[in-house]
Amino acid sequence: MNWSFWMPLLVIGTSLVTGILIFLLREEQFALRTTLNLAGAGTKLLLVAVIVWMRFHGHELEARLPFVPGLELTFRVDFLSLLFIALSSVLWLLTTVYAIGYLERSPHRSRFFGFFSLCVMATMGIALAGNLLTFFVFYETLTVVTYPLVVHRGSREALAAGRTYLLYTLGGGVLLLLGVAWLHLLAGTGDFTPEGVVAHLVETHRLQLVIVFALLVAGLGVKAALVPLHGWLPEAMIAPAPVSALLHAVAVVKAGAFGIVRVVYDVYGIEVASTLGVLTPLAAVASVTIVYGSLRALRQDDLKKRLAYSTVSQLSYIALGIALVSPLAATGGLVHLMHQGIMKITLFLCAGLLAETLGVRAVSELGGVARRMPVTMAAFTLAAFGMIGIPPVAGFFSKWYLGLGAVESGSLWVLAVLATSSLLNAAYFLPIVGSAWFGRPRPEWSSRPAGRTLEADWMLLLPAAVTALLALGAGLFAGLPFGPLGLARQAVLGIYTP
Amino acid sequence: MTGAAPWAVAVPLAGAAAAFLLGRPRAARAAGLVSGSATLALSAAVARQVWMEGPVRLSLAGWDAPLGIELHADGLSAAMLLVTSLLGLAIAVYATGYFPHPAGGAAGARGADAASAPRAVAARRAASEADAASGPERRVDDEADAAPAHEERTDDEANATPRGGAGGPRATAGFWPLLLFAWASLNALFLSADVFNLYVALELMTLAAVALVALAEGPVALGAAIRYLLAAFLGSLVYLLGVAILYGAFHTLAFEGLAESVLPGVPAWSALALITTGLALKTALFPLHFWLPRAHASAPAPVSALLSSLVVTASFYLILRFWMYVFPAVVTPAAAHVAGALGAAAILWGSVQAIRQQHLKLMIAYSTVAQVGYLVLILPLTVAAVAGSAMAWSGGLYHAVSHAFAKAAMFMAAGSVIHSVGSDRIVGLSGIATYLPVSTYAFGIAGLTLIGLPPTGGFVGKWLLLSGAIESGQWWLAIVILVGGVLTAGYVFLVLGQELSQSQDDVTPEFRPVPRAMEYAAMALALASLLLGLRATELLELLSTGSPFAAGGGP
Questions:
Q1: Other CB atoms within 10 A of residue B234 CB
Q2: Strand A71-76 versus strand B56-59 pairing type
Q3: B387 and chain A: CB distance < 8 Å anywhere?
Q4: How far apart are CA B25 and CA A167, in angstroms?
Q5: Which residue in A has a C-alpha nearest to residue B479's C-alpha?
Q6: CA dihedral in degrees (B159, B161, B165, B170; nearest 10)?
Q7: B72 closest CA partner among B80, B537, B86
Q8: In angstroms, how far is CA A36 from the centroid of its own chain?
Q9: Interior CA angle at A128 toward A126 and A133, to 5°?
Q10: DSSP per-residue letters across A190-229
Q11: Cβ–Cβ < 8 Å for B4, B187
């Protein structure tokens, strides 16, 4: 058996098979479904660990499947893929535990967990795609399989949010498809490579390349929630908490951000992209998004909406890091791909815990909630500090490297953007933290319901605590080679010194 | 193995005769399933032969053209033959659940689910599907809702003596011979290489199709069938006129002879125009689609599946044959642009109409009007293109195949849902996703193919068509292709959203069980349309065997 061929396909296949099997279960087969879910997520984590090991020991992992004459579906593992699959597989296991605790008593569980697994499958495909066509195939698949999760509640509001979601994402998909097809005709659909596939066309087809770049980034920008294409994200908050957590931390938004990374680094190549002059506009859009998202977040009273606008803002750090032509900024952007995921999933899991346990959904109702749910709020606080960039939580390192990169590339205005954004982050997170710990709790929160030793269901509490510790650990042990920062550094080495 | 092709026509024909002569529904069903399976095996044999040896040509009874009947199978014919047989068999399986047995039939033969279905189901279904067809005319919605309830009651009273309905014994008895007859004429059509034989096959197919539509009794279905008959008859006349001109001017009717002798000039141009118009009427190409929505929506579900997937495609297949194989020296870019404009209009207008429909089957029927437009785009993208024509050619054909699978799956899934809900109003579908997940997912997967989202066969077709459009610089067609996809998503997700939603009031809707054969036949076709998107190389290669663009797909 040829492991370097099968490993990428196996990673994708485990989720696909899990999803299909879950669809075949009856609603009441709780134990079997839970076993399948956990076995699927666990196997995937194991496979990913093996892949990381293989990649660090110099194995090339690659699978090619014929698609149409002259085009292949290609799966490859490089360090960028590693970043994304490591993030997804770890967070997926935790979110699955959380989702089982959160949803197992509500209707349509087979449907939910089936699409949940297909969602991982699509994300893995996006991470491992070795060319733009393969990426597009899984990118669109992701749109389709998340729709049933967004409308899961089946209410009028959920359906409306689903319509908005589809309108944006399918619209983006059309732009992306046009860009991909056009690029394919200009340059062929070669494998992702740091030299890019279009270098020979810069002299002759400059304008077309710029237009295609705009189409690709606009198409990807919908999922990456670049302003003004971010409108779907706050609305999609209607989905159940585990879905929001996954949409915001791993699956949908990251697919967009990751796509932009691929287009800039591996389709155009950093040199060609900067020669074409397309990176400065991208940096500008990202900066506007960072500030605008934070400003909107300030004004939201609904906790999940505030977090959603915070996602809009934080996500563009990734695009910003890429758009600055600097290895240090690239490190900051790529490491934020993981850091933002870990921190944001913690925040959403905590928001879900609050809503599920106490029915608290608004920022203004949070006063003193930490007395009743100290572990939850400790996790929340840790993640919020990370978002603001307070050392030693992970988020500090993202901002630190971005700042160094801004100096390195001579774009000092970016420092102002970072500073403003951090101030705004503090302005919308610290009041939550402050009132939760020091506010006056509601009288009914003074005592825990009888017979419970924990503040909430352990299946909900444990994942939130673990992700918070991961966020802290990623910062404390930033020097380790297998940590997010180590992986990001490896990836950047591949990009800037090909 | 040389003899497989004629048997692919003869076997379903014999099956039709057997089903007709045996008369009893159970015997007819057995004849249908047996001869259908045999036809599938024969079609596979033909496809295999073409795959291994290239195009096959053979004369029946030793008489060569121009006197005898000559059969000809290239990659395109073989692929269409195979698709027809796969779809035909799936439709047959579906029909075993759709047309229940008359009272007194062996209970053991029923599916477990069908056994618990009340007798009223058949009449209810007939009423609701007739209701579908009357959608645009009926102004008073209350009346439309009241009709099924009334029908149901009378049928319950008449329980002892079941009357005709969509599922009555008369329909059951009529369905099997007609299905096999239509199947045989489709196979004959795909294998003919002679303009007059084609006419005969086309006429037989049309007659069978009209009779199948008329199986759904009631004034609405009958009206739709008569309208369909008149439109198709008119189309045949126009086509025949064109054939007469051809024969008068060039003294042969065999494809090859014509291709060699046809010269640009008034006779050839007028023949091309007449033949194309006649066939466009049968294909329901915008603006000649007026007969299609009502005919396809009021027919019984398995018939709708057959008509929308195969019958329409077969007429279009003939247009392609004429343009690419008989008249390549005659067609002009201007004519191709006209066809392209009509195709684009069909895509946009049909999709918008589909979005506006309140009734499920009408929506799907308008979707067919739109999807025909995609097929027609092959003409401008090949005839009037300097580059990318090979891609557009395979893309269009791939789309035709994917669409056939998906559209049949969609009509079948819709038939199951309507059977279960008892009405085909889209607003009434809330909660059906929980009760009929298989049908809902089948509908969804088929919808993805129609939208052209990966990983489905529709995406492969769309990708190649789009590449062809960009390559040949016909940007406006590229935009129409993309916009059409978004509009398709509009009507597909309108239905899916409704199916996934909870009903607003607390009343739990009552659903009827659906025979498993119906649910899984639809799912099988939907999955086939999905698999087409995972690996396209083999089918594309088969399609390009003996084609005018034999080089294949990619640039």
A1: 16
A2: unpaired
A3: no
A4: 48
A5: A178
A6: 150
A7: B80
A8: 24
A9: 60
A10: PBP-TT-S-GGGTTTSHHHHHHHHHHHHHHHHHHTT-TTS
A11: no
Alpha-carbon A481 to chain mean position: 22
**Substitution target from A12, A27, A65, A68 for chain B, most B beta carbons within 10 A:** A68
Supply B236's token pair: 């045949």
Q: Is B500 on the interface with A (CB under 8 A)?
A: yes
DSSP state of B359: B
Q: What are phi and psi of B149, to 5 degrees?
A: -60, -45
With beta carbons under 8 A apart, name residues in chain B contacting A137. 454-455, 459
Q: Is B454 on the interface with A (CB under 8 A)?
A: yes
- The pLDDT of B156-185, averaged and rounded, is 64
Q: How far is CA B205 from the centre of its chain?
A: 12
User: How much is the mean pLDDT over chain B?
Assistant: 81
* Residue B134 C-alpha, separation from nearest chain A C-alpha, in angstroms: 29
User: What band does B550 get if pLDDT is binned at 50, 70 and 90?
Assistant: low
Q: Terminus-to-terminus CA distance in chain A, angstroms?
A: 31
- The shortest CB-CB distance from B554 to any of A68, A173, A174 is to A68
Query: Residues B372-387: pLDDT tens digits?
Result: 999 999 999 988 777 7
Return the closest-CA partner of residue A35 out of A122, A103, A100.
A100
Q: Of B306, B317, B326, B247, give the one whose Cα is nearest residue B283.
A: B317
Reply yes or no: is the peptide bond before residue A449 cis, omega within 30 of 0.
no
Tokens describing residue A395: 């988020």
- Can you tell me the mean pLDDT for B70-78? 87
**Cα–Cα distance measured from residue A399 to residue A403, given in angstroms and rounded to the nearest whole number:** 6
Closest CA to B482 of B335, B390, B401, B374: B374
User: Each residue of A160-199: pLDDT tens digit?
Assistant: 999 999 999 999 999 999 999 999 988 877 788 888 888 8
CA distance A14 to A42: 10
CB contact under 8 A, A166 and B489: yes
Provide the angle, in degrees to the nearest 10, between the axes of the packed helices B75-98 and B169-191. Answer: 170
Kindly report the nearest CA distance between residue B379 and chain A, in angstroms. 21
- Is the minimum CB–CB distance between B502 and chain A shorter than 8 Å? yes
Q: ipTM for the complex?
A: 0.90
Q: How far apart (Å, rounded) are the C-alpha atoms in residues A2 and B546?
A: 37
By C-alpha distance, which of B30, B26, B35, B8 is closest to B180?
A: B35
pLDDT for B142 equals 36
